[in-house]
Write a structure and sequence with these properties.
single chain, 199 residues, mainly alpha
Length: 199
């Protein structure tokens, strides 16, 4: 039986350095969003020059995409370690994610700005967001189908439509929340979830 070797030497250090840069970038974007953040500040936090930072990420755009990918990974991890118990529906997963995101307004700003710009097919983030929505729709649809099968989710409604509506509600509320932080995104998604419950 073969065993997988852990990276060693310069390669391992490169992976660790890249992770360190991503953590710093996440902090900066969480605090300030895309427009208020600079490569210089991120480089300063990890003790690098801008050329040194770009050795690990070829461009600011590549770093932004890596930040969004890292954010998604951390959100997935958070859902299993947030201490609130087992997730019982797709809608509940979205509510927990929203609550987590409300503590990171800068990352919400980054997501909203990039996702809107990425609707252009030649945008550097287009493929990332197209794949992200495809995966989220499939996962959320499966959750809706499961709920319909066990009697907790309204039947007679296309589960893919329910999935897309849930994602649309979530993303649309992010824009409203950035305009008006008094908007309770989590409570509104919970209202939508109740509308999806079986009668």
């Amino acid at each position: 039986m073969s065993t997988q070797r852990k990276p060693r030497g310069p390669y391992r250090k490169g992976i660790q350095r890249r992770a360190q840069i991503l953590d710093a970038a996440l902090e900066v974007f969480a605090e300030q969003g895309d427009r208020g953040s600079s490569l210089q500040e991120i480089a300063d936090r990890v003790g690098l020059s801008i050329p040194g930072l770009l050795h690990y990420f070829g461009s600011r755009e590549e770093l932004l995409l890596a930040v969004l990918e890292r954010r998604d990974t951390l959100e997935t991890d958070h859902l299993t370690t947030d201490g609130e118990g087992k997730i019982t529906s797709a809608g509940e997963a979205v509510v927990r994610t929203i609550r987590h995101n409300m503590d990171q307004p800068g990352l919400v700003k980054l997501f909203v700005a990039l996702s809107a710009a990425a609707t252009e097919p030649d945008h550097h983030a287009h493929a990332f967001f197209a794949d992200r929505y495809r995966r989220l729709t499939e996962t959320t649809k499966a959750g809706m189908e499961s709920g319909q099968a066990n009697g907790t989710t309204r039947t007679g409604v296309n589960p893919e439509h329910l999935a897309r509506l849930l994602l649309a509600v979530s993303d649309g509320l992010q824009v409203q929340w950035l305009m008006d932080p008094t908007v309770d995104m989590a409570a509104i998604v919970e209202t939508f979830n109740r509308l999806c419950e079986s009668e």
